[in-house]
Amino acid sequence: MKEHSTIDDVAAMAGVAKSTVSRYLNGKPVREESARRIQQAIDHYHYEANVFARLSAKQSHIIGIILPGFDSVTTPRVLTAIDKYLRAKSYTPLFINTEADLAYEVRSIGSLARMNVDGIILVATCITPAHEKAVAAVKTPVVFMGQEFASGVSILDDNLAAGEALGRYIAGRGLSRVGFLWVSEDDIAVGQQRKEGVLRGLQACGVTDVRNYLADFTYQTALSVARNILRDPDRPEVLVCATDRIAYGVYKAARELGLRIPQDLSVTGFGGYETNELLIPPLTTIRFDAETQAVICAETVLKMSRGEPVSQKQLIGYHFLEGGSVR
Amino acid sequence: MKEHSTIDDVAAMAGVAKSTVSRYLNGKPVREESARRIQQAIDHYHYEANVFARLSAKQSHIIGIILPGFDSVTTPRVLTAIDKYLRAKSYTPLFINTEADLAYEVRSIGSLARMNVDGIILVATCITPAHEKAVAAVKTPVVFMGQEFASGVSILDDNLAAGEALGRYIAGRGLSRVGFLWVSEDDIAVGQQRKEGVLRGLQACGVTDVRNYLADFTYQTALSVARNILRDPDRPEVLVCATDRIAYGVYKAARELGLRIPQDLSVTGFGGYETNELLIPPLTTIRFDAETQAVICAETVLKMSRGEPVSQKQLIGYHFLEGGSVR
DNA sequence: CTGAAAGCGCTTACAG
DNA sequence: CTGAAAGCGCTTACAG
């Protein structure tokens, strides 16, 4: 005896051809009497179709999601939201973790296309010409999340607007000596646009004394860079950090050196992590709505798979969260 | 022209049968000359096999991972480690997110088996009779992670030993009025065994004044329960929390009420989250090695899929992290 | 509305 | 070592 029942078992029990069962499963018209018998057989066998056996189907009902890692503050929220949305539409999500390996990311586009997925969501950190080539080479729709994809569809945080709001706020508090604790410009969305936004906001209010410090996305690097910055008596009045995590490094370094936030040093972040409320004082930061972004990505990729028109570029709004970390 | 090259294209170009290509791909003996020509064709087409087309293969080289959600402190670390291990062995991980829906969890065991996966790792929160039935009904090996599975293979934290160590430490600091801020006993590993361990440690040192308070895994609940506890002047000297997140709630409530940690109140956690170093004072807690657990799970399920013998139960060690939250 | 047949891309005995 | 054929579980034109 086979371990699992197949469409043949159901067909045999219902007394119809398996093609009829297939039609029934896919919501195509079937005589009422057949439907009844098929459903009976399905119930009897606890039958459920093997999603991966639809090799010759036009639609696989599978969406591939390429991500640079599971380990970040927003990724789990994004994945949860995408997963939920897709399952509600009876699509199966297929996650590919690239561990931020760009070459693997590019290859995954091809692999997923070959697996006949109906669409791909790529959570991007950096879009290279190789990405563009890979996307152009497949007919599978691809949406980029988090970074702008010039020759295709992308859904991203409105970093420019959010940064500008933050820049105006900082200037509005009378702070004029500003330090940017930022990530590399390789990251367009965060490394360039987010910073550009803050700069615009500052400049609009006449603040031009700006210094730049390079960090990366890790807490450790932020901590050690912050230590150096803060030891300098001529340090900036406010450290604008590219992410909350970087701001955490500043908090720690400030504490080590006996500097009080915000009296001796102001700090801001980007992220709006839940853990912020544990900080003393709470961090002033910008929060992007990851869930909305995720849902829009999923929605958009499904639309594309049906050939419906979609916007080239969609921007997700932000929330300004005023903590107590700016004097 | 087809969009993707298939095994037929490669076979044609190499001038061999596709069965020969298949053998080559699967590392079975092939004449050197054939191998050379096949590899050439593969390179030419950038061919890569479609993992999901191996419907009639004995081994699919796919491992299913059933998890209750992406959103927890340890899950991303666990997923990253499993993913990495499996890919290194050229297995494809297939993640099923159940959002803690036990019925869906049970059904997923069947779905994955039907998809012909070589093994299943189930990140468990609660094992029901339905789980046991589902596992018994499939020949696919299943390992449970995080909860003990009496009738099968499980890999879990050594909560009993870790709890005991913490209990002895607390008693050793001279604290005698203890409060447990815990989660429901529905969770055997955390709700029962972890607490049992602490109790043993305390009792071994003569501490018996113990009160119990019920919370859950969320920060919000912990916060509101902690507020009530701490308002009582007759409150415990130390709050032993089932997780770090719960301890965070206590920190917050203590701050609101003007209680100093550890002078006015001692607190401990379980978890060893990275964010702990931001707390003032750092939290005294127990850390389990999620990466080790993940790797052992993956290793074990692969062994089982090869029919090799494995232990029924494997316990992961712990690290005691002394912070400054115990007087 | 339905069945027989061919096909999706791969693997697996079975001869040779 | 290799090829022709059958098969995995499903879907899809194509007749009827």
How are the SSEs placed, and which strands pair?
The structure is a homodimer.
Chain A: H1 7-14, H2 18-25, H3 32-45, E1 62-67, H4 75-88, E2 92-97, H5 102-114, E3 119-123, H6 129-137, E4 142-145, E5 153-157, H7 159-172, E6 177-182, H8 188-204, E7 209-214, H9 219-231, E8 238-241, H10 244-256, E9 266-268, E10 285-288, H11 290-305, E11 313-316, E12 318-321
Parallel strand pairs in A: 1-2, 1-3, 3-4, 4-5, 5-11, 6-7, 6-8, 8-9
Antiparallel strand pairs in A: 10-12
The structure holds a DNA duplex (16 and 16 nucleotides).
Comma- or semicolon-separated keywords:
3 domains; DNA-binding; Rossmann fold; 327 residues; four-stranded parallel β-sheet; 43% helix; 17% strand; alpha/beta; 11 helices; homodimer
Question: How does this model look, in words?
Answer:
Two copies of one chain form a homodimer. With 327 residues, chain A is an alpha/beta fold. The first copy, chain A, folds into three domains: 7-49, no CATH class; 59-156 and 290-316, Rossmann fold; 159-288, Rossmann fold (3-Layer(aba) Sandwich), CATH 3.40.50.2300. Chain A has eleven helices and twelve strands. The first copy, chain A, has a six-stranded parallel sheet, with helices on both faces. In chain A, β3, α6 (129-137) and β4 (142-145) form a beta-alpha-beta unit. In chain A, α7 (159-172) packs parallel to α8 and α9 (219-231) crosses α10. The longest helix of chain A has 17 residues, at 188-204. Chain A is elongated and about 85 Å long. The A-B interface holds A 3-4, 46, 48, 50-53, 55, 69-72, 75-77, 79-80, 83-84, 93-95, 97, 99, 107, 110-111, 113-116, 138-139, 219, 248, 251-252, 255, 274-275, 277-280 and B 3-4, 46, 48, 50-53, 55, 69-72, 75-77, 79-80, 83-84, 93-95, 97, 99, 107, 110-111, 113-116, 138-139, 219, 248, 251-252, 255, 274-275, 277-280. Chain B binds a DNA duplex (16 and 16 nucleotides) through α2.
